[in-house]
Amino acid sequence: MRNTDIARVFEHIATMLEIEGANPFRIRAYREGARVVENHPEPMSTLAGAEGGLDGIKGIGKDLAQKIRDLVATGTTATYEELKQKVPLEVVGLTELHGLGPKRVKTLMTELHVRNRADLERAVHAGKLRELPGFGETTEQNVLKALATADSARGRLLLHAAWEVARALAAHVKAVRGVTQAEPAGSFRRRRETVGDLDLVVTGGRAESVMDAFVAHPDVAEVLGRGDTKSSVRLVNGLQVDLRHVPPESFGAALLYFTGSKAHNIELRKLAIEKGCSLNEYGLTKGERSIAGRTEEEVYRALGMDWIPPELREAGDEITQALAGTLPRLIEVSDLRADLHMHTDRSDGQATLEQMVRAAKAAGYEYCAITEHSKALAMANGFDSARVRRSVDEIAAVRKQVGGIHVLHGLEVDILGGGGLDLDDDALALLDWVVISLHSRLSQPKEEMTARVLKALDHPRVNAMGHPTARRIGQRDPVELDLEAVFERAAERGVAMEINAQPDRVDLSDVNARLAASRGVALVIDTDAHSTAQLEHIRYGVFAARRAGLEPERVLNTLRFAEFERRIARSARKGTPRGGTTGTNEPRTGASRKAPGAGRKAVSAGRKPAAASKPTRPRAGQ
DNA sequence: GCCGTTTTCGGCCCGACTGTTTTCAGTCG
Which residues partner with A200 through β-bridges? Predict the structure, then answer.
């Protein structure tokens, strides 16, 4: 059982207790336990086996430790089983719908005998919700909307939820004697933000041994089918996985075929036909003669084009580009030199300031920005101006404690309802890096929301906008916002747009990031990490950027620190309105592109961080 | 249920917003 699985059980227990009306602090303890487990760098399954392995983990006491041991050993725990009798899991799932919390779900259960989604849908459509105490017509409409939103993501899993298990399965199968290659294909390989199912393409070894190993994997909950070349299973997390065993001479063609997208494949087959060939999952053939199929490169080459990264295979313009040899050099995680959005336990993060900075350094970054919340998020311990002033010294101290990485004193400032910023100008002037974000009043009508964001972008101290559409995949739609207008203004003002890498945000999305780049907007890719473990989520931001076709030059935090400092200082001078040209956002070619990542680890060796000896922000006073 | 503890139980982040009310409950973050 993985940490994420254990965390999910604790989350479920918390919600069940909430519906039952249990002691709120007991509920919180389970929630906290879930968070701690999910973000813990070591697997609970290992720790549970070792004597005292679970001791001293903050948030995990005697009781939860025992439950973790139960879960690891038996897959469940008594409390969970008992609660499931009273509150079915399907009912727990209903609380994930926006606008439905434990109290209303409890009412639905007792008053209307709602036991699952289907019951709820029937009740909503029959107009029964509005009659319930605490409900009304608006709430009924909101539930209807929430059901529709959830529908679009139904049956699909966040890429992050499939990530570990897909890689583990591939490695598991690869370990079978004789197997030479095992690759997850499908939308997983194209790095879409959610995946419906997983296709695993395998070659080498005896098919029978491969199938044996596959269905025996500990994460397999159910075997749906098993044949000579194909088997299907359902995993404990609900994901369906199909494995196909193919001969080595077909591996590339099969990988290509099962990676898709369907539209991309159709375009390729058309091209093959133009050349008098035929393309299918077994290979590219001309009459009886096999032309290519062993590798993807071989197939693409035979069709007269460059190999296309899976992220681009959506039948946009990638085939034209591949034929012309003009595919972009897509950004990679190793191109990034900074993470510019992260929280510590000073606001609502879990790690201390020092731990977070050390983790960023360990991730190989040359610089980073610590960006706590502002005071509008009271529950998150948001900073007011006095707290920001105290923070100046704290940041200075951590720069001394942890050498070898430049630490920017940042803040994630709330955009208030009218477009004002949740921090006064004097305090803003103390910051090196200002990210502005929407966290409240997310249902404003489009015109109001657009005006609000445009006003915020106009503030001269703003460097970037965090998770610009505030969506939560499968849970909350993006805000109503005229993105064209927002990108235009951002380009004018030199404000970067963030690709937030939280797996359930990925915001900007690939599509919107592409639009932003086409309008000359600079992008930043950040994790918004609330723990050191979440720094790894950066990959999901990079995936979106790759799907958007972004080259490293488009992304601000690929710049070396000195260049980055110059860039944000230049943006600061653009504070007063001027005839907007996007020219200053054009990529600087050359310098940043050479030897990606080469300088990162080297920097920590000797160079003293400039920021450490200069606590005031570089652009202050300009 | 966890933590801290001046060891055995008291305290545990709460403000904004919405939609329901007619003074506040529920939800969100």
Answer: A184, A243
Select from A304, A324, A344 the last residue of a domain: A324
Q: Is A596 among the domain residues?
A: no
* Distance (Å, whole) CA A428 – CA A575: 14
Of the candidates A158, A54, A36, A82, the one whose C-alpha atom is nearest the C-alpha of residue A530 is A36
As given in the structure block, the two tokens for residue A332 are 């990679």
- The reply to whether A9 and A91 lie within a common domain is yes
Distance A57 CA to B2 C1' (A): 11
A173 and A54 together in one domain: no
CATH of the domain at A260: 3.30.460.10
| Phi, psi angle pair for A187, to nearest 5° | -65, -20
Overall residue count recorded for chain A in this entry: 622
CA of A565 to C1' of B5 (A): 49
Distance between the alpha carbon (CA) of A442 and the C1' atom of B18, Å: 12
* pTM of the full structure: 0.75
Return positions of chain B under 7 A from a protein CB: 1-4, 11-21, 25-29
Give me the domain span that covers residue A432: 333-578
Residue A595 lies in a domain: no
Instruction: Give the model confidence (pLDDT) of A87-123 as tens digits.
Output: 998 899 888 887 888 889 988 998 889 998 889 999 8
In sequence order, what E strands does A269-416 have? 278-280, 283-286, 289-292, 338-339, 367-373, 406-414
Task: Please check whether residues A385 and A266 belong to one and the same domain.
Answer: no
Closest CA to A589 of A549, A550, A553: A553
